[in-house]
Amino acid sequence: IEPHPRGEVFTLERVEQDGRATSDSTILYLDGQPRHFEEPGCNGTQSSQQIDSQTVEVLRKCASGAWTRFVRRWTTPRELVLEVIVQQPDGRRFERRLVLERQ
Q: How far apart are CA 57 and CA 52, in angstroms?
């Protein structure tokens, strides 16, 4: 997560099931407006908004009915929590919570 003149840049790096590393960066305008979004497996919209001074929400909705919600929250000046909820088109839901602490 980095500052950007229009909001923030959110970069998600992951390792796919086949071992390939991927990186996806997107601008978060933090205005709640849905904008076109496309990545492998998802063609749809992404919106982002600042919930309060410590919390940002990103919502990605795919045309297939799947969606992903990221919530980034500073719980203390040294601790960042990232919650990820993934809803599959068949109704399965996965929730993850990552806690990062500054050294």
A: 10
Report the 3 state secondary structure along 50-96. EEECCEEEEEEEECCCCEEEEEEEEEECCEEEEEEEEECCCCCEEEE
Rounded distance between C-alpha atoms, residue 79 and residue 64, angstroms: 35
- Predicted TM-score (pTM) of the model is 0.86
Is the pLDDT assigned to residue 24 strictly greater than 90?
no
The C-alpha atoms of residue 67 and residue 88 are separated, in whole angstroms, by 7
Q: What is the pLDDT of residues 31-53, one digit of tens each?
A: 999 999 998 889 999 999 999 99
Give Cβ neighbours of residue 30 (< 8 Å, ≥ 6 apart).
7, 8, 48, 49, 50, 56
Query: If you ran DSSP here, which 8-state letter would residue 100 be given?
Result: E
